[in-house]
Structure formats: structure tokens, C-alpha cells
Amino acid sequence: AAKQRGKNNFVLFEPGLRATAVERNELEYELRKAIHSDALSLHFQPKVESAGLSLSGVEALLRWSHPIRGMVPPGKFIPIAEHAGLMPELGAAVLTLALRQCRAWVDQGKQIPIAVNVSPAQFDDPLFAPNLIALLTQHGVDPSLIEVEITETMVMTDFDAAAARVAALRDAGLRISVDDFGVGFSNLSQLAKLPVNFLKIDRSLTEAVSFDPKAQAIVRATINMAHALGHATIAEGIETDEQAAFLRLAGCDMMQGFLFARPMPAHEFEKWLAAREDVGLKSQGIRSEKA
Ligand code: C2E
Ligand code: MG
Ligand code: MG
Ligand code: MG
């Protein structure tokens, strides 16, 4: 807005805004350097089956450990990366980290599906699918171990192109989910034509089932619709037993949230997994054959 009002406008020199602009520039500069350093890493949050609570996979969540600022949350630096046109590069770095980890687990005898968040700028690239498929070969990773999380808005501008991309990834054996479902205004007839595996019910809906009967109705309807369309469902952001009980009763297939586990670095996740295996919570193995 300040920009629109003209370069010489006093608004630019208002202390608060100036600090923000300086901070953004600083973060952008540092992010450019961080992309190819080990300051960027992935944390992994378990997803569990609603029935039996066995592990169905993990979601990879990007972390930036800044030497002075500490952990910068993705909500803060991803918008900066987007604005600076760094998302394709950052996204490629995330894919490499995820595939490396996936392969390391396979080498340890663990087949753990990893879900990776993909940004609009990444997904819009016509080379996204072929590059990812090549990367899988390069790392020797089974495509069925990688799940790509897209959002509703990413298929809205050019549905046909997006659907073709989803189909190409599916044909190659990858899994696809629609993340943050239920907060955008979905075009449901388009959704029906999109060959995705999973719908992830947004945290705001999961949260609201504890106190809002309308949210309960939306969640039940979403799960039924997803199943009718052949998609499995995952509820994100589960924090309470009450929410988990509601979602299980509503037929939600999988759950993810602080109630089960927080996102963790790989070594911590491995300990978490080992502890569960010790108490015999692991059921028929790690792989989910749901979709
Ligand atoms: P998302 O994909 O919807 O990821 C779920 C977010 O909810 C994560 O936040 C996770 O830590 C948080 N979460 C999980 N369970 C709970 C819970 O029970 N309660 C609460 N309050 N929060 C919970 P995080 O890691 O800060 O990531 C935020 C968003 O940043 C992600 O939302 C995703 O949109 C984006 N993001 C993260 N990593 C990447 C990445 O590698 N690439 C891209 N393009 N985006 C990413
Ligand atoms: Mg996600
Ligand atoms: Mg999500
Ligand atoms: Mg979300």
C-alpha cells in the first residue's frame, strides 16, 4: 500500500513500516544464503490411522534455524520466499531433503510415506512433475512413498493444467492430497474430477468441532463426500481427545495433531517411533494401503 502511494511518500519513513521493510530485506538476503546451507531442515509430524493409531506416514514441515533469530516459522519466511521469487529454489531444496530422508529410512528397513507441501509457484511449473519423477529415480525412492500436498487455490486458475499435472504424478505412482480443505470456497465439481488420494480437513474446522455444531455438520459432510468421491480423509490439528473422538466417529480415516505428536527432527521422530514399537502400538506395519 505504501508503494502505491508513491516512492517519496512519508509513509515509507514511518518507523514501524520501515522496520518491517528492513526486516523483510534482511530475511530475504539471509534466506538466499540459507537455501544452500544446512540452516534449512525438515521436521516430521506423524499421521496416524484413526482405527488403531498405527503410523500411516509423516508430513515434512520446513524449518529455518537462524543463527540469531532462532527458529523462524514457515509462516514467516515462506511468504518472503514467495515474494522474492525464491519458492522454486526453496521447494526444490525441500524435495531433495525429503527424498534423502525417505531413502535413509528405507535403508534402515522403514517404509515411511512422507508428505511434502508444495507451493503455487512450484506446482505451476510445467516441469514440476517430470523433475520430481526424475529426482525419485535419482534418489532411488519408490514414488508411492511420496505424497504431494497441494491446496484448493492451486488448481483454481487453470484447472485443466493442474488436473493434468495431478494425473501425471498419480500415473507415476505418487500420492496427492488436498491440504487445508474446507476453508477455501471449493469448486466441488472440479474436485470430483481431480484424481487425488486424500483430503486434509483444515485445522480451523477440526478446532471448531469442539464448540460449533455447524462445523460438526461440515466435517461430517466433507468426510462423506470425500469417501463418495473415493478419497481418504485426514484431519489436521487434532489437539484434544474430544476432537479425536468426534472425527473417529465421523469416519475420518487418519489424524494428525499435537495430541499424537508435534513435528520433530528425524532423529527424535525415530525415537518416538521406536518407543511406540516397544509398547506394541505398531499394528500391521508402517505403510498405509488406504488409497
Ligand atoms: P500445513 O501444511 O497445513 O501444516 C500444518 C501446520 O499445522 C504445521 O505448521 C504444523 O506444525 C501445525 N500443526 C500440526 N498439528 C497441530 C496442532 O495440533 N495444533 C496446532 N496449533 N498446529 C498444528 P508449520 O510447520 O508452522 O507450517 C505452517 C505452514 O507452512 C504449513 O501448513 C504449510 O502451508 C507451510 N509449509 C511448511 N513447510 C513447507 C514446505 O516445505 N513447503 C511449502 N511450500 N510450504 C510449507
Ligand atoms: Mg500440509
Ligand atoms: Mg495442512
Ligand atoms: Mg492447515
From TrEMBL:
<protein>
    <recommendedName>
        <fullName>EAL domain-containing protein</fullName>
    </recommendedName>
</protein>
<feature type="domain" description="EAL">
    <location>
        <begin position="24"/>
        <end position="277"/>
    </location>
</feature>
